[in-house]
Amino acid sequence: MRGHVFQRGKTWSYIIDIPYEPLTGKRRQKKKGGFRLEGEAEAACAAEITRINSGLFIEDSNMTVTTYLNMYLEIHAKPNFKPTSYDTEKTVIEARIIPEIGSTKLQKLTPLIIKKFYAKLRLKYSSDYVRNIHGILRRALRLAYTDYDLLLTNIMDKVKTPKVEKKEMKFWTFEEWNKFIESSEGHVHFIVFSLGVYTGMRRGEILGLRWKDIDLVKGTLTINQTLNWIRTGVIIQPSAKTDNSNRPVVLDRYLIDDLKARKKQVDNLKLKYGKEYENHDLVCCYEYGGRIIPKRITEAFNVLTRKAQLDKIRFHDLRHTYASFLLSIDINPKVAAERMGMSPQMFNHRYSHLLPNMQQDAVNRIEDRIEEARKKRAEPVDK
């Protein structure tokens, strides 16, 4: 880093060349004048260079939170996130963060401003949603400090992660589960619900499932892609949600029968529409082969739930229903986790609240076996 002094009228000034602005690539300089003597200007210049090199200097900037967050989306989020994650981040920033604190200058942003922002959010939104917004701000502002030299400190270090209110997990009993699948037979999207009920697959995994991913002879399917919705439309992602999500799933005979019936239905529709059929090789699609908009499944699920007079749950809660069913019939949690595309650690964390009753059942079985053994020992031995 270089600096020099020069005389302007009767006083002396210094100018320092600062490294280029990391976001825009623009040249930056630090200037200061009004020194009576050349030596005073040289000493001040040297001291300022030392301060800059030690990381105790941030150039004054009029950049607002809005300008910075838009840059963050373009240079960090867009090239590094999956399209669905980027779309979610962009939506939250544009709809929730910018309208409230976007006009604030980035360097004037304080922990107090952010805490007041969170307090306002909590009046309208769930604690989960506020926590998600916090995660986005924390990530963006950390980069402003660590990578872009736009902040002197990471102000998010002084903002605690909002607490999340623990919600009771909703799921159906086996009887309700069975009632739903029976009442949905004949629906245009029945195969979607059948896959959800019998495998616990995520909605995006079901809608992205292709016939080439299924072996009806061996009775298996493999999850290799997902179908999701972003603001620009339906998007296919070649990889599933996590490393564990890309998995083989063994099918039960009831689901195999449903898939065989669906295959015949699709083959007939291909003949009906001919060249106009959109062949994406999808198991779950519109009559003409087009990709299903995910929210249409949610809407249909809600209608069928009301029709069956069942307690309202989300489509995603079919996963919780499936997990509770597996545990209730003594399926090893490790096997259950594999079927659902989760790590054993994540599965245990998510569904540990279902285990106490099963542990009690295990204790009861142990007691029964001990009691049985004691009775045998107490029986008289024939001589």
UniProtKB/TrEMBL annotation:
GO molecular function, one term: DNA binding
Protein name per its UniProtKB record: Site-specific integrase
Record family assignment: Belongs to the 'phage' integrase family.
All copies of domain Core-binding (CB), residue ranges: 63-145
UniProt keyword Isomerase present: no
Gene3D superfamilies: 1.10.150.130, Intergrase catalytic core (1.10.443.10)
Keyword DNA-binding attributed: yes
Alphabetical keyword list: DNA integration, DNA recombination, DNA-binding
One GO BP annotation of this record: DNA integration
Domain Tyr recombinase: from-to ranges: 167-364
Coiled coil: none
Pfam families in the cross-refs: Arm-DNA-bind_4, Phage_int_SAM_3, Phage_integrase
